Amino acid sequence: MREIETRAQWEEAMENGLLLGLAVQGLDLTGDTERILQHDFDSSLFLGCGLAPEAQHHIEAGGGTVLPPLRDLPFDAFPTHLYTPERLFAGYVPSEPDTYEHSLDGRIYAWWRRTGQTIPSTIRASLARRLHDHGISDALFDMIGAFKVVAIMGGHNLERASAEYRLVATVARALTRAGYFLASGGGPGAMEATHLGAWFAPRADDDLEDALATLGKRPATETEGLRAHEYQDVDWLARAFEVRERYPLVDRAAGRSLGIPTWHYGHEPPNAFATDIAKYFASSVREEGLLSIARYGVIYAPGSMGTIQEIFHDATQNHYGSVGAISPMIFLGRRYWTETKPVYPLLEKLAAGQPYAKLLAAVDEADEVVELVSREAVLEPECDEGI
Q: Which of 10, 194, 213, 229 has the most CB atoms in a 10 Å sphere around its CB?
């Protein structure tokens, strides 16, 4: 199906008469009734479009399908673009933490909780979530295009003042400068460090050092913190916005990065440094998608069970070649991944004799990561192997 997502694309299709089998998304076509009545839209699909009743009847009678907008939702069930921090955080005032719940992100999370959380309480809620996530996936794959995507995974509790957080930010900055497009799960900890590094790629190195010092400060007295971010101190998010204000993105193309968070973990606001945000309701879709697009490698910073789950998910994709590419798996922190959480030795044994065995590495320095990724040693699966 040919996708129509802008007014210009719609006008071009109408002018050229190429109207069969279209997928038209999110357009207000209430003023186009007379023109629509003059054409045939057999096998076309209209998702979330504004249509007059007469136009909708004409399309459906002619073999087209119309899914009208779903009303009374805090989000668009048929999104055609990814989110941005500016959109998700609209309404949040850093000096007033309680305003977070009035932001778009906070209101969607509240709706998710009201409608059954992980198990939708109604068919309408279930359908709205799945339609939304489909639209986000469609926009995501449209956006990444020819980007050389590298993902960084790691713990959400990685302290901003830690050496590990600084290392992740340094790695992300170096890879962004080298022309790679950084992606993460879009939350706090190692994920935030990923986008912070990309954000500062167009700037002088000293600017990142100052940002790290600002982010690493904690109040003298712990408080209950943001209700939307219960395990962090009250100004966790405010300090991120302080850094954004002091160091605005000078070159979006040079500091761009992708966060892929989920309302399943909605108590953690998305971090403020990812320029593009593909936020999902379904955590499983989010994790599968993030690992699938990282064709130029996945870097694993220290983390716990969530990160370890992602490691074996990635290893399974590589083992069976299920996403059409076998890409590097780089473990950042040799001692951590061989002794503290000894995943790496087990993975080496599991990978023995498999093509992806040569793409495993455990390193300690940012330069080592950049050198390994820069080899661009992405392999094509040799054949399908039975599970």
A: 194
In a domain, 270, yes or no: yes
Same domain, 338 and 212: yes
- Name residues whose C-beta falls within 8 Å of residue 354's C-beta, 6 or more positions apart in sequence: 318, 319
Q: What is the 3-state secondary structure (H, E, C) of 15-77?
A: HHCCCCCEEEECCECCCCHHHHHCCCCCCCEEECCECCHHHHHHHHHCCCEEECCCCCCCCCC
Q: Give a yes or no: residue 45 inside a domain.
A: yes
- For residue 273, count other CB atoms closer than 10 A to its CB: 28
Q: Identify whether 286 is part of a domain.
A: yes
Average pLDDT, the chain: 91
Q: Are residues 43 and 168 in the same domain?
A: no
Residue 275 belongs to domain with CATH number: 3.40.50.450
**Would you say residue 92 lies in a domain?**
no
Provide the angle, in degrees to the nearest 10, between the axes of the packed helices 123-144 and 283-293: 10
Instruction: Give yes or no: residues 181 and 268 share one domain.
Output: yes
* In a shared domain, residues 153 and 63: no
Give the bridge partners for 34, in sequence order: none
CB 40 within 8 A of CB 60: no
The whole-number average pLDDT for the span 89-98 is 90
Residue 364, classed as helix, strand or coil, is coil
Place of tokens 């279930």: 126
Q: Looking at the 3D structure of the chain, how many domains does it have? A: 2
pLDDT digits (tens, 9 = 90+) for 122-155: 999 999 999 999 999 999 999 998 899 999 999 9
Q: pLDDT digits over 98-128, tens only?
A: 899 999 999 999 999 999 999 999 999 999 9
CA angle, 289 then 295 then 299, to 5° = 85
19: domain range? 2-67
Q: Which of 86, 88, 50, 48 is nearest to 69 (CA)?
A: 48
Which string of DSSP letters, residue by residue, matches 291-360?
Answer: HHH-TT-EEE-S--HHHHHHHHHHHHHHHHTTTS-B--EEEE-HHIIIIIS-HHHHHHHHHTTSGGGGGE
